């Protein structure tokens, strides 16, 4: 813990951590297939039956393997997996098992496979992991959109390392994470799972996620599976240039810089074809433009949506397989028909062999096919250790974005506080759609208790953290939403059995009395109103009209403002909320997203001034409920619809930028980089961390966006302290995509150093001379900042 805290205090630079890993030189790149893995796989493949090979190409859900008591059933196994199985899908969130029993399930399954199937090949047990391992009792970290607002790849690596450690304990070796869709509208219900609107930030955070999850040795780590390829969260129908330069970028980065070997396609279409069977996307964009040599998997049930009817299953399998999709998730609905497809000649044996060998190679790389492979840990397991909770707390603190403060924050220690609102005392305000408790409730309609692990709501956090001289009163005041405000998608990416919202996700055990809350507010010095959404209102398959505060929450806040007492608005949820009608009346506003299990403590510490907020927006915070795609680097005319810009976030201190110096104002297209430096000073009275942002703008009409993020760094400073920042912008970062190649044009460019995308503190110009440079791939994807 001492080492981790030192890193956070020091504000280690992105480039210090990534000086080799984040450069796209693939210096640490290991091919998916090695001579050793090829030997093992070839020998195994040659002795396997056709039925065994097919079984490696799909998964099964744990319900098909256990009895009514949740124990592995020999009868069901002999019926459903006599030839083995490739994957057990969502094996943890689909079962209500404590860590020890979950491990025992995996142990029993692997032992059964070893003894009762022809080749004894173990199964990969995969699970969701964007906010930590989605298992009962496992640490719940902040949801990804909040994690992106930390702009902290260093801590992301530690969080994912801990996640991998927890997964390996129970025997899980693959995560269906990270989600790196570039999302540019807050109306997209799954924006909470993304890293926001910017491709560079998404790429940097995605690389860190994969590095932490997989580690230096995949045989000891957990395989990452990036999703959703390509453009599921928006942008799939963009022109080729933007699709390649921006929507593809996070995938390219984690493949080339972090060695990700698994990619999942989405449910959407590309040029009229579902992407699970889109050869242009899989063969050209994925394998051709990034050099990806790993395994491609389908999203759950996606292959069966190519055509309707049981008589079309072989055709579905053939189209997906021929396009380049290797594995079918979750259950084997279509791929068991591959022998039929090969017999009729619509799938070649060579393509089938390629897919099977990729599936086996992943198991080799994970260390699962070695003699005496360690597939799980013995003894009592703890998936929520103090170290894990500490990381969750630090991430929650750094994810909170202070949007407004007229001086009311930090709260005075002698103040009388009225804590009100539906998110003030509920663990539902802390967790996103892919955390175990919400998955248990939403998909299985079972009620978690918020105690395993302990999810700390804001009320508990304030009681834990407040000084003795502060009085905190609590009244819930209003409900989350109104009846019928949100619905469930009955098709697309949802199991049609889920036909209505789960009531348990919007109910509260607390008495809800509007008038009592207003009375408490009038009798207090300051009002803290905790509002926003919960997992029933935002997330996969949740459909809500509008993105303002749901239900009567806005009306409630207006009445709180009318008391004349200062209102501190604390918003929790999976996306920005339109608050234009109440923004002026609030004394302070902060967005805490879904802050995870330690969210209550983190938000309380920021309210009290124990922690200085440092989060910066990873999205353009909308001013209206427009469904248009809004991004800071495109369509300046849409900025009038933005309340707070990309990269924005306030602090309890102030920072001064100065002394920008470019080492050489003229470079050649054949040069590696342009180097420069500047100073940053904490000019306030409180220690804090600033996130400096490096932007690039073309000056001479180069075909680049008018402004684009090209680097960032967290810098921690004591009051009055100055630090010199040294930066190196790679010339490859000036490249644009045209006619299957990358090009660097000579001309004039502008470097901008900002506290946000529109708050530019320093700027300077440099020129690039020489002939236009072309290349098949860029050598460098990220800048270096020291």
TrEMBL record:
InterPro entries assigned: Cellulose_deg_GH3 (IPR050288), Fn3-like (IPR026891), GH (IPR017853), Glyco_hydro_3_C (IPR002772), Glyco_hydro_3_C_sf (IPR036881), Glyco_hydro_3_N (IPR001764), Glyco_hydro_3_N_sf (IPR036962), Ig-like_fold (IPR013783)
Pfam family, one: Glyco_hydro_3_C
UniProt entry tagged with the keyword Signal: yes
Residue ranges of every copy of the Fibronectin type III-like domain listed in the record: 690-757
Signal found in the keyword field: yes
Domain of life: Bacteria
GO MF term list: beta-glucosidase activity
Signal peptide residue numbers: 1-24
Similarity section: Belongs to the glycosyl hydrolase 3 family.
The protein's name: Fibronectin type III-like domain-containing protein
């Amino acid at each position: 813990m001492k080492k981790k805290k030192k890193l956070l205090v020091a504000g280690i630079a992105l480039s210090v951590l990534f000086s080799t890993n984040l450069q796209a030189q693939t210096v640490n790149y290991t091919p998916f297939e090695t001579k050793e893995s090829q030997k093992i796989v070839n020998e195994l493949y040659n002795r396997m039956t056709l039925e065994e090979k097919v079984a490696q190409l799909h998964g099964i859900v744990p319900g098909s393997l256990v009895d009514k008591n949740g124990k592995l059933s020999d009868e069901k196994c002999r019926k459903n997996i006599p030839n083995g199985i490739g994957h057990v899908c969502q094996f943890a969130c689909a079962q209500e098992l404590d860590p020890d029993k979950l491990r025992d399930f995996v142990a029993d399954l692997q032992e059964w496979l070893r003894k009762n199937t022809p080749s004894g090949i173990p199964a990969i047990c995969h699970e969701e992991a964007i906010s930590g391992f989605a298992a009962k009792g496992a640490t719940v970290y902040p949801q990804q959109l909040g994690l992106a607002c930390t702009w902290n790849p260093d801590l992301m690596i530690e969080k994912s390392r801990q996640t991998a450690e927890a997964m390996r304990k129970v025997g899980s070796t693959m995560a269906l994470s990270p989600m790196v869709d570039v999302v540019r509208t807050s109306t997209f219900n799954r924006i909470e799972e993304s890293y926001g609107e910017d491709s560079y930030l998404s790429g940097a955070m995605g690389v860190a996620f994969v590095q932490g999850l997989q580690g230096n040795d995949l045989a000891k780590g957990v395989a990452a599976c990036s999703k959703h390829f390509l453009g599921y969260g928006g942008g799939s129908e963009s022109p080729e240039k933007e699709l390649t330069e921006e929507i593809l970028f996070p995938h390219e980065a984690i493949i080339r810089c972090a060695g990700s070997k698994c990619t999942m396609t989405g449910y959407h279409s590309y040029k009229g074809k579902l992407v699970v069977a889109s050869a242009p996307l899989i063969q050209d964009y994925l394998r051709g433009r990034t050099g990806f040599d790993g395994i491609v998997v389908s999203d759950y049930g996606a292959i069966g949506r190519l055509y309707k009817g049981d008589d079309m299953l072989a055709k579905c399998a053939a189209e997906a397989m021929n396009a380049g999709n290797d594995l079918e998730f979750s259950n084997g609905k279509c791929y068991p028909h591959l022998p039929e497809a090969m017999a009729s000649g619509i799938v070649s044996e060579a393509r089938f062999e390629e897919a099977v060998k990729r599936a086996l190679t992943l198991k080799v790389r994970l260390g699962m096919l070695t003699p005496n492979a360690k597939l799980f840990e013995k003894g009592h397991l703890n998936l929520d250790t103090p170290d894990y909770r500490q990381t969750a707390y630090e991430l929650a603190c750094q994810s909170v974005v202070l949007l407004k403060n007229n001086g009311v924050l930090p709260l005075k220690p002698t103040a009388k506080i009225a804590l009100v609102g539906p998110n003030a005392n509920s663990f539902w305000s802390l967790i996103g759609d892919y955390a175990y408790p919400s998955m248990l409730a939403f998909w299985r309609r079972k009620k978690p208790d918020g105690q395993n692990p302990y999810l700390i709501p804001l009320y508990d956090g304030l009681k834990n953290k407040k000084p003795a001289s502060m009085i905190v009163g609590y009244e819930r005041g209003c409900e989350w939403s109104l009846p019928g405000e949100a619905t469930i998608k009955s098709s697309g990416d949802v199991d049609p059995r889920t036909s209505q919202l789960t009531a348990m996700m919007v109910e509260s055990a607390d008495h809800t009395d509007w008038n009592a809350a207003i009375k408490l507010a009038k009798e207090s010095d300051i009002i803290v109103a905790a509002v926003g959404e919960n997992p029933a209102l935002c997330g996969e398959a949740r459909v809500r009209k509008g993105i303002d505060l749901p239900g009567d929450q806005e009306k409630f806040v207006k009445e709180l403002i009318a008391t004349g007492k200062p209102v501190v608005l604390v918003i929790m949820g999976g996306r920005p909320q339109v608050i234009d009608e109440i923004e002026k009346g609030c004394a302070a506003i902060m967005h805490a997203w879904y802050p995870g299990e330690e969210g209550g403590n983190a938000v309380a510490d920021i309210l009290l001034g124990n922690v200085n907020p440092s989060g910066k927006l990873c999205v353009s915070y909308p001013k209206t409920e427009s469904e248009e795609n809004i991004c800071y680097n495109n369509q300046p005319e849409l900025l009038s619809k933005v309340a707070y810009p990309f990269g924005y976030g306030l602090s309890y201190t102030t920072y001064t930028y100065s002394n920008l110096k470019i080492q050489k104002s003229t470079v050649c297209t054949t040069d590696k980089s342009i180097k420069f430096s500047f100073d940053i000073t904490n000019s306030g009275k409180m220690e804090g961390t600033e996130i400096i942002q490096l932007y690039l703008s073309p000056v001479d009409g180069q075909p680049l966006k008018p402004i684009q993020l090209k680097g960032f760094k967290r810098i921690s400073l004591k009051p009055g302290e100055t630090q010199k920042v040294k930066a190196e912008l790679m010339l490859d970062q000036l490249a644009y995509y045209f006619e299957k190649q990358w090009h660097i044009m000579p001309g004039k460019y502008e470097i901008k150093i900002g506290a946000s995308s529109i708050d530019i503190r320093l700027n300077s110009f440099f020129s690039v001379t020489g002939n236009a440079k072309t290349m098949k791939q860029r050598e460098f994807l990220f800048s270096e900042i020291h």
